[in-house]
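Example (one chain per record):
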Amino acid sequence: MACVKRFSKINAISMGFSWVLQFVGFVTPWWFRQSYTFVDVNSGVWYSTTCYNILMKTCEMKQHLDSKDYMKGFHPKRPLQVQLTIALTACVFVVVLSLKTRKCTGTTLMKRLAVNAYMSVVSGVLCLSPLSSVVANQFFWTGNVQYLFLYSAVLTCLGGILALIVSFISLHQIRLVQTTNEPVLQLSTPENQDDYNSTSSLSDDAKVC
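Predicted structure:
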């Protein structure tokens, strides 16, 4: 049981780091980065920045929420916004549940570990799933474009990988709990109970004799 509690602490710390990585990628504008001759374009989950390198560098920021497409009910970034919001929420949920799991035993512990594993997978998959579209937009764009490093996408993907690692740790915890409870379960089976009763009756008869 001490190992299970130790792993629960590791899960909470790891998912805390995963949340930090995901959050940095969530709020920074370096998901799509392209540099033209005199213009640098950076686009993130919630806003984009355009910098002009003419005489002196000037930048302007534009929120996706203010765009006409968003007002009409659809924006290309909306699926990404929903995905990463759910991933961050799942991450916080796992951190809180991992801290509470340290005080649990038996069936409650098994249930919470299973929920931890499931929610960690959800967070990890939602962070990694936008990777294909990001690569497609970044490297298959035609024209005279210089591609820059995608800091936000890389940090979010690292957070997703860390969340998947936590899910594997939770599954390992479940296995440890099952291994620990096996002897108790074996003693509680009907056959073992009958053997125990027969042994007890024989010992009682021996005492009478």
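Caption: Residues 183-189, 202-209 have pLDDT under 50 and may be disordered.
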